[in-house]
Amino acid sequence: MTRVLYLYGGWPGHYPYEIAGWARELFKELDFDVEESTDIFTLDRDLKSYDLIVIGWNNAVTTETLTASQEKHLSEAIENGVGLVGWHGAGAAFRASLKYHFILGGSFLEHPAGEGYPHPYMVNFLDREHEVTQGVEDFEVRSEQYYMQVDPNIHVLAETTFDGNPMPWLKGHRSPVAWVRNWGEGRVFYHSIGHDTSNLADPNIRRLTKQGLRWAARK
Predict the structure, then answer these.
(1) Which of 37, 123, 128, 152 is deepest in the core (most CB within 10 A)?
(2) What are phi and psi of 92, to 5 degrees?
(3) Is the separation of the CB atoms in 146 and 166 below 8 Å?
(4) CA 31 to CA 84: how far, in whole Å?
């Protein structure tokens, strides 16, 4: 059975405890053996016995980080084959930890239409043949549209295009929404959707996330 560490909590504005209920449904459908933790110090130990680490942690300020010990244990685990999955706030977590964002493959910069604003935008898929995206259709989201800074070496699965409201100079510009990468022997998957549970109700998002979890977990 796939052994998972699910770390969640932090800033309540991203509803980590409500979204944990949504995540539990996916874990159950995947028949994962999940250890939950709301204690960041869980990362201060050897993590190599897990098959997957899921980050549902959310930060309130940009100065929050991981300690050198936490970075070391997390990176060693992934380099040795443990998968890493995160969504939405995981791209803004541990903002001062360059190592974490180096592994994840990107970092949140801004939501141009405003924090928490239900801005309508499309998610368009670039790679429909990947194991993570098979059967997933383009879909609309009404939520925070994330502007991401990303590693040029990630494999982008889906992107969004900005409509220029309220920043007209961004009209037509695109930003990745979902990507995968390899890190050592480990696999990494991230998508930027999930400000609250209503954003995650679309069956396409459920399928994308579920397939991403399955793909990233150590085989």
Answers:
(1) 123
(2) -115, 0
(3) no
(4) 17
- 3-class secondary structure per residue, the chain: CCEEEEEEEECHHHCHHHHHHHHHHHHHHCCCEEEEECCHHHHCCCCCCCCEEEEEEECCCCCCCCCHHHHHHHHHHHHCCCEEEEEHHHHCCCCCCHHHHHHHCEEEEECCCCCCCCEEEEEEECCCCCCCCCCCCCEEEEECCCEEEECCCCEEEEEEECCCCCCHHHCCCEEEEEEEEEECCEEEEEECCCCCHHHHCCHHHHHHHHHHHHHHCCC
Q: What is the pLDDT of residue 62?
A: 87
Residue 102 to residue 19: CA distance in whole angstroms: 25
Contact of 60 with 219, CB cutoff 8 Å: no
Question: Cα–Cα distance between 131 and 88 in angstroms, integer?
Answer: 21
Are 42 and 50 in contact by the 8 Å Cβ rule? The answer is no
List CB contacts of 200: < 8 A, sequence separation 6 or more.
Answer: 19, 22, 193, 194, 206, 209
Distance CA 32, CA 143 (A): 29
* Rounded Cα–Cα distance for residues 83 and 164 (Å): 36
67, amino acid identity: T
The answer to whether the CB of 43 falls within 8 A of the CB of 74 is: yes
- pLDDT tens digits, residue range 54-109? 999 998 788 999 999 999 999 999 999 999 999 999 999 999 999 999 999 999 99
